[in-house]
Design goal:
alpha/beta, Rossmann fold, 2 domains, seven-stranded mixed sheet, globular
């Protein structure tokens, strides 16, 4: 267990109507100097000097370990920046870390331990969708605010509960909806999808199949692969001959092997290839065996390589986390980050900070938790800046989900260069739920 001390809230806040998200997300009024909408609850100085205790549910072991290590590094960096700037409402963050083993059952146990033994104020940080789905009911039962950094559509779908939020990272449905038009218009319309056989992969299968169909295309092949698989050649033989685009998204310990074996199978003659960077997160793009990827494309939430138009906030974020312009650790250039996911930890902590300060949260009393949840649900916009370096986002209090920009990058000479960036509006979709109608 680790105890680490680590706070400009950067959040625009307004009353959210119950109209649909496409009409409602774009509404934003003038900001006050404090970054809070006129009439919104103002910053309330916490009377307590006790620390804000945050439980970080970390994939230190299991198939999510490479992500967990970088989620932890990013979280520790954000905690330090916030604490050095005065903390949250004048209170320091005390971070308590527990390993969930990337396992749903253990995840639920960790959430309970945070609530009953550590008595934390909030829990945050979970990535893998099956762990989120396994842990969320416990958070709801214990009335523990639970902030996940997962990407799965499970939050926005309405299948979880009012205590679960995903405010620092976009979901798969939004991602694929925004990129399908570019894929159909530039690469092809007959797509074979290769995806991990669990909830996250099923989101890709379901929502990209629908999104490409809306562009006049089709998913001509669907190939699920167990996330613990380590050998992949037999799966490539299942790709239909009429395939124009191979769409791949893989996770787990075999990702580098997956991409290398795909290259060995196809050689220089292959369909267009569009991958989610999950298939090569934490992997050096210049690794031997990846040469065949040159000229192919990847989705990135946050470009790993610093681009020519690099923002000041990206420079700040990289320096704070200790990541160089190639997306690797400054202290070990061979240690490649999970750059397209880990920013969600940084941004989520700033959302928590803003919610505490705007709601006047003092303790884990039911009224304070209710006020905090309602404060998050009232948020609408997260401006790009040091608190949200990946880019501006819109937040739906109805869905408990953030919507942001996506990048499509091309592999060129062993690095990723952005060739297209979607708008926030490209990823909006009709809402399926309204958590605000659930009791607290």
């Amino acid at each position: 267990m680790d105890h680490t001390k680590t706070g400009s809230n950067g959040v625009r806040r307004a009353r959210v109507t119950r109209r649909n998200i496409i009409k409602g997300l774009g509404a934003a009024g003038a900001l006050t100097a404090s970054g809070v909408m006129p009439g919104a609850m103002r910053y309330v100085q916490a009377q307590s000097s006790a620390p804000i205790k945050i439980g970080f549910q970390c994939h230190r072991t299991g198939i999510g370990a490479s992500y967990g290590r970088w989620y932890q590094r990013t979280t520790l960096a954000a905690v330090k920046v916030i604490n050095d700037a005065g903390g949250i409402g004048g209170r320091q963050i005390e971070l308590i870390i527990e390993d969930d083993g990337t396992d749903p059952k253990r995840g639920a146990e960790v959430v309970e331990k945070f609530a009953t033994e550590h008595k934390v104020d909030f829990v945050f940080g979970t990535l893998f969708s099956h762990v989120v789905i396994g842990s969320a009911p416990t958070a709801g039962q214990l009335k523990m605010p639970y902030f996940v950094v997962s990407e799965g559509h499970h939050v926005a779908s309405g299948k979880l509960n009012r205590y679960v939020f995903q405010p620092g990272i976009t979901d798969v449905r939004s991602q694929v909806t925004s990129m399908a038009p570019w894929i159909a218009g530039n690469l092809g319309k007959k797509v074979t999808m290769i995806f991990p056989d669990f909830a996250f992969g099923h989101d890709h299968r379901n929502y990209f199949s629908a999104a490409i169909a809306a562009q006049g295309g089709s998913a001509v092949g669907l190939i699920p692969i167990p996330p613990t698989e380590t050998s992949f050649t037999r799966y490539f033989a299942q790709i239909p001959a009429e395939t124009e685009v191979i769409y791949h998204v893989m996770v787990g310990p075999g990702v580098l092997t997956f991409v290398k074996e795909m290259g060995e199978h196809f050689g220089s003659k292959h369909p267009q290839i569009f991958g989610f960077i999950d298939s090569l997160e934490a992997v050096d793009m210049a690794s031997p065996g990846l040469e065949f990827l040159d000229g192919t494309y990847f989705w990135e939430a946050y470009p790993r390589y610093a681009q020519k138009d690099q923002s000041a906030s990206d420079k700040f974020y990289r320096q704070a986390v200790g990541v160089n312009d190639m997306g690797a650790a400054v202290d070990d250039p061979k240690d490649v980050s999970t750059y397209s996911h880990m920013f969600g930890c940084w941004e989520t902590l700033y959302v928590i900070k803003a919610a505490v300060e705007q709601s006047g949260y003092q303790s884990a009393a039911p009224k304070d938790k209710a006020a905090l949840i309602e404060a998050v649900e009232a948020m609408t916009d997260f401006p790009e800046g040091n608190e949200h370096p990946q880019g501006a986002k819109k937040f739906s209090g109805q869905l408990h989900q953030a919507f942001g920009h996506q990048s499509i990058s091309k592999v060129e000479n062993g690095r990723l260069n952005v060739v297209h960036r979607t708008s926030i509006e490209d990823g909006l979709y009709e809402p399926e739920a309204d958590y605000r109608t659930h009791p607290l």
